[in-house]
Amino acid sequence: MILTRRILLNAIGTSLLAGPVLAQAANTAPADFKGKVFVTERGGVRVHTYMADPAGALVTSHLVETQAGLVLVDGQFVAASAQELKRYIALLGRPVTRVILSHMHPDHWFGLAHAGFEQVHAGPVTAKFITERGAALVAERKVETRVPAIAGTIAAGDETIGGVVFRYRPILDTEAPEILTIELPQAGILIAQDVVYNKVHAVVSRQLDQWVAALKAIETRAGEMPVILPGHGEPTAPASLAGLVGYLQAVKPLLVANIGKEDQAKAITEEIARAFPDYRIPPLLTLGLSRALKA
Ligand SMILES: [Zn+2]
Description:
This protein has helices at residues 2-17, 79-92, 124-141, 208-220, 241-257, 265-275, 283-292, and strands at 36-42, 45-51, 60-66, 69-73, 96-101, 119-122, 149-153, 157-161, 164-172, 178-184, 189-197, 227-232. Strands 1-2-3-4-5-6-7 form a 7-stranded mixed β-sheet. It has a single domain, classed as Ribonuclease Z/Hydroxyacylglutathione hydrolase-like (Metallo-beta-lactamase, Chain A, 4-Layer Sandwich). The radius of gyration is 18 Å and the shape is globular. The longest helix is centred in the middle third of the chain and has 18 residues, at 124-141. Helix 4 (208-220) runs antiparallel to helix 5 and helix 6 (265-275) crosses helix 7 (283-292). By secondary structure, the chain is an alpha/beta fold. Bound molecules: zinc ion.
């Protein structure tokens, strides 16, 4: 374990010496991890991104270092990934003093209990869903986990935690009813979570127009937020968003033409997967379509 910690710290140190870590930075996870870790350091703010392996849907969890401890954004899906996240946090050797849940989808919170967390802060829509329907979702999916308690509700605006400004911007009716995006203005980092997928098939909803509009709004602010941390996939940059816009625009006519035909989810997925061969995990698109196609 000590050796692992030293290797990890060396890896981080090397990245720092090389200057700001750019999008698509090197994986600095311990050698036995299935998931990956990317460290982004800008403007005196350091963010560690744990990304699960494909079995964990390439879901990301971000750890923002502050003078008041670590702020964790999202808690993983499967137990194995959550346990790696927990191990990584132990390697950092600092307490997590706040856990923020970006949105209601279980791939971002079923792992929380396995990572050792029992409570979260979230936007109001997400908080209401977790409180009212979280237990039913756990029972329905037959997973071994616990529903986190809501420790606080987050509204739009700025909060300074341990010297780091967190700018909360909830985005409504895109991939989920509410996704809390978090900007770190000192660092020019946007924690976009599921508003952005990086070369990963998306759990699409019917709100594709609003979703595209949200992506274009992010694109226009590329100068302020040159680094984007997606909810699925590696850190990226605003220049890559055009690719995701094209993907959603390719899905839209197929979705619209097949409303009421849930059995077409697989066929549409296959068509989109052929058109976007570098996108990973097609079952995520099938999952989204099977819901969005319901009449
Ligand atoms: Zn997700």
